[in-house]
């Protein structure tokens, strides 16, 4: 399956060096194009910084393997959630 085209947000949860939880998020755009036929949902997502710069910045935050993919740009909501849960939120541009 593919996610509909347009604005999307990815969200990951990782562990900090002191054992706490940290959220990692980025907004992008789901774009048309071929995707892997591997039996689960996947999409082509374009981020503002380009693939190499985005991937370097994302990996610098210590992500785990999986992310949640949400329709629409959701950083405003995620900032509120992080504040309520007293969690760090790293936003990757």
- One letter per element, helices H and strands E, the order comes to EEEHEHE
What is the makeup of the main sheet? 5 strands, mixed
- Give the helix proportion (percent range): 10-25%
Low-confidence stretches: none
Fraction of residues in β-strands: 25-35%
What is the number of beta strands?
5
Assembly type of the shown chains? single chain
Radius of gyration: 14 Å
First CA to last CA: what distance?
26 Å
Mean pLDDT: 93
Number of separate helices: 2
Shape: globular
Category from helices, strands and their pairing:
alpha+beta
Short account of what is shown:
This protein is an alpha+beta fold and 93 residues long.
Structure description:
- Helices cover 23% and strands 34% of the residues.
- It is an alpha+beta fold and 93 residues long.
- Strands 1, 2, 3, 4 and 5 form a 5-stranded mixed β-sheet that branches.
- It is globular, with a radius of gyration of 14 Å.
- It starts with 5 loop residues before the first strand and ends with a strand.
- The mean pLDDT is 93.
Blueprint (SSEs and pairs):
Blueprint: E1 6-15, E2 21-31, E3 44-46, H1 51-60, E4 68-71, H2 75-85, E5 88-91
Parallel strand pairs: 2-5
Antiparallel strand pairs: 1-2, 1-4, 2-3
Characteristic key phrases:
alpha+beta
């Amino acid at each position: 399956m593919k996610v509909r085209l347009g604005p999307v947000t990815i969200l990951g949860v990782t562990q900090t060096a002191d054992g706490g939880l940290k959220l990692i998020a980025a907004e992008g755009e789901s774009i048309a194009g071929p995707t892997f036929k591997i039996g689960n949902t996947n999409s082509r997502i374009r981020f503002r910084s380009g693939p190499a710069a985005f991937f370097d910045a994302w990996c610098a935050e210590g992500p785990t393997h999986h992310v949640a993919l949400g329709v629409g740009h959701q950083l405003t909501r995620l900032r509120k959630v992080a504040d309520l849960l007293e969690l760090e939120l790293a936003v990757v541009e």
